[in-house]
Amino acid sequence: MKKEFFTLNEACELLGKSRRTITRYIKKGLLNPEKVKTEKGVLEYRFNRSELESLKKPDTIGQTTGQNIKIEKNDDDTLALLNDTMKLLQKQLKTKDTQIKQLLERQRETNYLLKGLQDKVLMLEDKSKDTKHRTDDRTNDTPNAIKRFFGRWFKSGDNYR
Hints:
This protein is mostly helical. The chain folds into two domains: 5-56, Multidrug-efflux Transporter Regulator, Chain: A, Domain 2 (Orthogonal Bundle), CATH 1.10.1660.10; 75-159. Helix content is 60%, strand content 7%. It contains five helices and three strands. The protein has helices spanning 8-15, 19-28, 49-56, 75-132, 142-153, and strands spanning 5-6, 34-37, 43-48. The protein is rod-shaped. The termini are far apart.
């Protein structure tokens, strides 16, 4: 009478593999044992003879490292992986779009603040002209006025006149 179901230890002996290797096969889906509760209340694996026999066939299992395991990949698995990857990339793209919008808003705010600072600098330049009573034609030229202001500020005004 042939036994139809085997315990983990019996499966290890039958296949000539370690417990660790058999548990790896379970995690990889190469073995699908039933979980049975013993009289002591402990869950144990029960392996089907036909499933164990299919793993004993040559060319299906290599060394105990599992490097030579041949698994036929299903197209559905590949499509599922591609779908997951696509969803991840779409999520990352949305995050980057949000970051770009935030940076553009900060750029607008910075430009607004710089414009206000530039206006204040020009007002200061005009006040300094009034106190010195300058009547130079170049004072009405805004770019030259800015250059002169910064030239005085950095004490290198000769380079900017």
